[in-house]
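R.M. (postdoc): so does anyone remember the format we settled on? I'll just put the C-alpha cells first.
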C-alpha cells in the first residue's frame, strides 16, 4: 500500500477520534492542516494511467466532508469515490 494512502487512512482515523472529542474540529481544518487536499500521484508531472501512475484527488464537498477519487486516466475515475465526515455528525 503506498505511503500516501497509509497517511490518508491514518488521518481519516484521527479525524474520527478528534472530531468526536470535546472540541468541534472540522474535516476541512484537519485536511488543510496536514496538506491532504489536492492531487496526489507517484509522479505528479505525468498524466494518470492505469498501469503505473494512479492519481488520487481529495476535494472538499463542504466543511465536514471530503471526497476522494481514484483516477486511472486523465478523465477516468476507477473504483468508487468516497466522502468522509467525523463520527457522530449526521448529514
Amino acid at each position: 500500500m503506498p505511503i500516501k494512502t497509509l497517511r490518508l487512512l491514518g488521518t481519516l482515523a484521527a479525524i474520527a477520534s478528534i472530531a468526536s472529542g470535546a472540541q468541534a474540529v472540522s474535516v476541512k481544518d484537519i485536511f488543510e492542516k496536514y496538506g491532504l487536499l489536492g492531487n496526489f500521484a507517484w509522479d505528479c508531472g505525468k498524466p494518470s494511467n492505469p498501469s503505473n501512475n494512479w492519481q488520487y484527488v481529495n476535494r472538499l464537498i463542504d466543511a465536514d466532508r471530503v471526497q476522494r477519487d481514484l483516477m486511472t486516466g486523465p478523465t477516468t475515475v476507477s473504483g468508487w469515490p468516497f466522502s468522509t465526515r467525523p463520527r457522530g455528525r449526521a448529514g
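R.M.: ...and that's the designed sequence above, right after the C-alpha cells. Also worth knowing: The two ends are 31 Å apart (CA to CA). Residues 59 and 84 are 11 Å apart (CA to CA).
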